[in-house]
């Protein structure tokens, strides 16, 4: 949907430095980020999160389901940050040879439905998924570590 204003404190911004560490990423990772930077997920969790762990961040100007796996391979991405239906767009793409041949080990984000979750892992391999909820306006953030 359209962007909406959200009041984000300085403390919450600083806390975003630890986001990727909380979900299991490290400075050795390459994070593929195709989210809009006007959104908290793209700017604070994505960019600031990469700064917090010293990881490489690959910025894609616009998400493309048809180019995603080629981009992941070309950039050596190991972590993908999604929102909403991005994973469904990937699952709905026609099957292509080599879509399990990648270095992606972690997908993190919010809004992934259970049917897409299982389809994504079945089709693209053992990518660990960490679903989060309540990152913007809430006082509490939830992480689904167990899948």
UniProtKB/TrEMBL annotation:
<keyword id="KW-0436">Ligase</keyword>
<feature type="transmembrane region" description="Helical">
    <location>
        <begin position="37"/>
        <end position="59"/>
    </location>
</feature>
<keyword id="KW-1133">Transmembrane helix</keyword>
<protein>
    <recommendedName>
        <fullName>Long-chain-fatty-acid--CoA ligase</fullName>
    </recommendedName>
</protein>
<dbReference type="InterPro" id="IPR042099">
    <property type="entry name" value="ANL_N_sf"/>
</dbReference>
<comment type="similarity">
    <text>Belongs to the ATP-dependent AMP-binding enzyme family.</text>
</comment>
<keyword id="KW-0472">Membrane</keyword>
<dbReference type="Pfam" id="PF00501">
    <property type="entry name" value="AMP-binding"/>
</dbReference>
<dbReference type="GO" id="GO:0005789">
    <property type="term" value="C:endoplasmic reticulum membrane"/>
</dbReference>
<dbReference type="GO" id="GO:0004467">
    <property type="term" value="F:long-chain fatty acid-CoA ligase activity"/>
</dbReference>
<keyword id="KW-0812">Transmembrane</keyword>
<dbReference type="GO" id="GO:0005886">
    <property type="term" value="C:plasma membrane"/>
</dbReference>
<feature type="domain" description="AMP-dependent synthetase/ligase">
    <location>
        <begin position="1"/>
        <end position="141"/>
    </location>
</feature>
<dbReference type="InterPro" id="IPR000873">
    <property type="entry name" value="AMP-dep_synth/lig_dom"/>
</dbReference>
């Amino acid at each position: 949907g359209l962007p909406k204003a959200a009041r984000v404190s300085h403390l919450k911004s600083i806390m975003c430095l630890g986001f990727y560490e909380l979900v299991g990423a490290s400075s050795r990772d390459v994070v593929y980020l195709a989210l809009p930077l006007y959104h908290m997920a793209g700017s604070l969790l994505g960019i600031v999160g990469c700064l917090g762990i010293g990881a490489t961040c690959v910025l894609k100007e616009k998400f493309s389901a048809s180019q995603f796996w080629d981009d992941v391979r070309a950039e050596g991405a190991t972590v993908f940050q999604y929102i909403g239906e991005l994973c469904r767009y990937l699952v709905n793409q026609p099957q292509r040879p080599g879509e399990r041949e990648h270095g992606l080990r972690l997908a993190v984000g919010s809004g992934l439905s259970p049917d897409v979750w299982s389809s994504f892992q079945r089709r693209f391999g053992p990518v660990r998924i960490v679903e989060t909820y309540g990152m913007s306006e809430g006082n509490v953030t939830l992480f689904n570590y167990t899948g």
